[in-house]
Amino acid sequence: MTAIDDQIGRARSTGPSVQDLLAADTRPVPQSLTDHSYVPQGKADVPKVRYTAAKFAELEYEYLWTRTWQMACHVDEIPQPGDHVVYDVADQSLLVTRAKDGSIRAYHNSCLHRGTKLRTEDGRVGSFRCPFHGWKWDLDGKLVELPAEWDFPQVWQQPDSCLPEAKVAVWEGFVFVNLDPDAEPFESVAAKLIEHFGRDFNMANRYVAFHAVKEVPANWKVCMEAFAEGYHVIATHPQILEFAGDANSEYSIWEDSQYVTRFVNGFGVQSPHLGNLPEQQVADAYLAFSARAGRGAIQVPDGKSAREVVAEVFRGAMGQVFGVDLSTASDSEILDAHLYHLFPAFMPWAGVGQSLVYRWRPGRTPDTCFMDVLRMMPVPPGKERPAPAPTQRLRLEQSWKEAEGMSGLADVFEQDMENLPKVQLGLKMTAKRAKKGVSFGLYQETRIRLIHRNIDRFIAEGLAADGRSVDELTPFIVPEG
């Protein structure tokens, strides 16, 4: 293995860093936000065929999606015994359900007779019955009915007649599953996420106020990468440059956290791509863009920054909406975008008001994927926990704007969606003079490099475990150094 030069990716944009903003915050900031680290991930190009080749998608199907921890649902979706969610990923399907004793199980969604999918939709049942021949399992996964049982003495009441189970973990209300019985424990894989949210960002008291899933015309990695960096803001989201420190975003990779990383985009400060703007202009642009202000123009007094003034406006407006006292919440918690990533495809935001959660899964071909967006809102003080919002499903040709309740976020998403099919088409250019790889930035896109290295690690280990040659991975592998 080639050693990676530890000086790679040390250059930074002009302007205040996220840590500079935290040091100037008007309130004490959560300890987790000052826990920042950078580990270089090399400078080699990443082969384009990783996004387009059916062979690589097959390797991901077999050795990535069957061996990693993935968010399947929220506990609020399965409150009672028999409630279940069908979690489909790649060519696998699980029935995530509440068993009779109240525990959460994840059964392989396949009849043990001839493989028929037991359930195709979420819902509530008293048992799982195959629609083909009527074999039936109870909520604990035990086979309880087999028509013409006399003809199946090798099956009926045998230990292996129970539905096989995947591993399950619950974190902050989210249910995670892993199809690998020998998988590393979730608590180990997600240790940094558990540490930070457990100490500073409570997600357990939030409920699913919005959930939409859309089929997207791009590989799942192409789609996910669009939400993993702030580098694209200058060209894709120019409307926020006056109040978003895009090039000053912070990307954290920790030496002891192989599968959890973080991206922080500071708001209430101008982009370093622009000339020096008056603080009043920054505040005016931010307030005009945001729906959180709820009032007219705000003056930025001499000696004050737009960031601290806007934070105070939002602090009051958000506190009133949510019925909570936010007087001690830091400017960063009020304003900034803190996007954590748990490999391979779960991205929760940490924030005071509303926390977004993203999830990605591969599509029917390497050219498509599915993206989920959830909005997690605080449970109103003194109120019963609201039921989770129903999942809205958008087809390939539909727009995020058709998702009821997505509000202004849909406009920003559509800017990203306009790029993605163009990226996917460009990656397919294989002429002799066409570029063979993707040239990621050495800092702003370094987390993406780590994601690709982790994908290679899972595939290589899986191939070796199955006695297959790792040469199958060679045309796609990310070079070291």
CATH topology of the largest domain: Naphthalene 1,2-dioxygenase Alpha Subunit, Chain A, domain 1
Largest sheet: 5 strands, mixed
| Main sheet: strand order | 16-17-18-12-19
Which structural class fits the helix and strand makeup? alpha+beta
Oligomer: single chain
Question: How would the global form be characterised?
Answer: globular
Question: How many runs of DSSP E, i.e. beta strands?
Answer: 20
What CATH architecture of the largest domain do you see?
Alpha-Beta Complex
Q: Return the domain count.
A: 2
Question: How many angstroms does the end-to-end distance come to?
Answer: 9 Å
Please give the count of helices: 13
CATH class of the largest domain: Alpha Beta
| Gyration radius, in Å | 24 Å
What share of the residues does DSSP label as strand, in percent? 15-25%
Low-pLDDT runs of 5+ residues are none
Q: Report helical residue fraction.
A: 10-25%
What does this structure look like?
With 481 residues, this protein is α+β, with helices and mostly antiparallel strands. The chain folds into 2 domains: 268 residues, Naphthalene 1,2-dioxygenase Alpha Subunit, Chain A, domain 1 (Alpha-Beta Complex); 100 residues, Rieske Iron-sulfur Protein, CATH 2.102.10. It has 13 helices and 20 strands. The protein has a 5-stranded mixed sheet with strand order 16-17-18-12-19. Strands 5-4-3-6 form a 4-stranded antiparallel sheet, with no helix packed on it. The chain has a 3-stranded antiparallel sheet with strand order 2-11-10, with no helix packed on it. Strand 3 and strand 4 form a beta hairpin. Helix 4 packs across helix 13 and helix 9 packs parallel to helix 10. The chain is globular and about 85 Å long.
